[in-house]
Amino acid sequence: MLPGRGRDGGVVRRACVLGTRTAWSAVGDGEFFCPGCGGDRNYQRLNGRRRFTVLGVPLLSRGVTGPVVECAACRGHFGTDVLDHPTTIRFSAMLRDAVHTVALAVLAADGTCARPALETAAAAVRAAGFDDCTEEQLAVLVEGLAADTGRVHGEPCGPGLVIELHEALDPLAPHLAPAGRESILLQAARIALADGPYTPAERDALTTVGAALTICTDDVTRLMAAARTPS
Known about the structure:
The chain is α+β, with helices and mostly antiparallel strands. The chain contains seven helices and six strands.
């Protein structure tokens, strides 16, 4: 009903004769990061069918609409591209794995696995979420990485290590702010500098990390220089 005014100035109501109504049906569900709630929530994926109504009674089909994603908490409707954003739990796991992979790549490039570099790398990996990571564990993993790939310590990144870095960083990079991407590269640079100046192999590894994080070459150079300055 729509409000109006009669001749005497009083409010009267008029019937809403024509309209449309959408009937939603669920075609899937899961968990996602809800932009309306700002956190992880359950969702339903819905398809809709629109109908022309007369006096509120659905009569003729007006076609389909959607699909949309409906939050189980706030009931907000969002486009399906919202599912491309990882949940908070998934994002944390992606970040943790990325830092771990980058640390191993830089240590492998170092060639010596010197204690200062191992300590810096282990601290970064623990801060990212691997609470029980130790220097000894990283040293063993670096040796295993060299054995699996046939790569000699101190040489530039081989194809296998480049692939591993891209597999860890490519899915993460679009969901990181520029400062977040730079932070990962700075951590890697500080691991490389922990036992002395950059070696050519370490520079190559850091350049590969920067490329996987979609950081331009000039910014990679700037950040590698900034890492020399104590924070």
